[in-house]
Amino acid sequence: MRFRNQWFVLTIAVPLVFTTVGCSISQKPQSMQKPNTQQVRYNESMRNTNPSNTTKPPVGQKMRTADDVSDALVKMNEIDAATTVVIRDTAYIGVAFANNYQGGMTSKLKNKVAKKAREIDSSLKRVYVSANPGFVDALENYARSVREGKPISGLVNGFMDLVGRTFPSSQ
């Protein structure tokens, strides 16, 4: 019987020891290899730029009035007053309709104004036209500031914000 008890203890103890030793945490030294990493490169040359907003001119860009264009537009039957401000090759034109003109700002009239503006100033590639009274008033104020020789650097940002609100498709 004693032999049976020893045999019973041995059959339970041996698997218990193997289980305990096999499931214990291994005490190996850590690997000297670096973890797998991937180098990331950033394009530092694009810092502080906003290529998606194309309406903002470069710093120091010249803003000018085009009174010759405005004068030619006033001679049209539909238009009583016009103000034109040009930045690079883009003209922004604000118009007030003549009293006898019954229509509104149609795409046909916009195209007619743009065509006339390009006839007068061949350097113009884009022409934006609006009869919105708020835009026309603000445009007249900017044109007056340019004629008076006020610093343009402060005017350009405010002007481009106005353009972005009036002509959202230009962005």
From TrEMBL:
Q: Does the keyword Lipoprotein apply?
A: yes
Pfam family name, one: Spore_YhcN_YlaJ
Question: InterPro entries annotated for this entry?
Answer: Spore_lipoprot_YhcN/YlaJ, Spore_lipoprot_YhcN/YlaJ-like
> Keyword set for this entry?
Lipoprotein
Give the GO biological process terms. sporulation resulting in formation of a cellular spore
On whether Lipoprotein is a keyword of this UniProt record, the answer is yes
Protein name per its UniProtKB record: Sporulation lipoprotein, YhcN/YlaJ family
Q: Which organism is it from?
A: Marininema halotolerans
State the taxonomy lineage: Bacteria, Bacillati, Bacillota, Bacilli, Bacillales
